[in-house]
Amino acid sequence: MAKIERIGYGQVEPNHLSAQRTAQIYAQLPCGDDFVEAIDGVLENGQFVKYDYANKAVNLTGKGEWMLVFNEIKLYDDRKQMYRDFAMKKEECVNGEIVPRVFKTNIGDIYTTNMVDSTKEYVEGALLKVGDDGILTTGGSLDDDDMCWEVAMVYTLADGQPAIKIMRVK
Length: 170
Hints:
The protein is 6% helix and 32% strand. By secondary structure, the protein is mostly beta strands. The strands form four sheets. A six-stranded antiparallel β-sheet has the order 2-10-15-14-12-13, with no helix packed on it. Strands 3-9-7-5-6 form a five-stranded antiparallel β-sheet. Strands 1-11 form a two-stranded antiparallel ribbon. It is globular and about 45 Å long. The relative contact order is 0.25.
């Protein structure tokens, strides 16, 4: 069992994300005002959001399936900064508008992340679901209509932080 406590911001290592080949990558909608307020103006890689095209906003309540936030990491001092130092922040975005890049995930996609509910413990084989806050948590099920991820391995990120390697199973 492992607790995954983030140092810095959420990270994604794209071991096998099909969106990189299928072009199921979206980056045209801004985060909705209520959503930006709920996340305190900081959107981290590894969080899940709804791409609510009908309402022209990224949020947590739109119709459709959850999409993985995986923004291009922009670091300006490689000697002092690491991936854990990057998140999209409202005050650093043009006109204060966060416009994230999101990936559609498919069954079989695999990635490593530390962006999980830090109050839970994770073991290999556990099933995860997207929580109401867009963060993966325990309690996934193969019996309902929700997206489900399996912990393939308790792992580490390149910077040595605890993480989990997960695969989408539904």
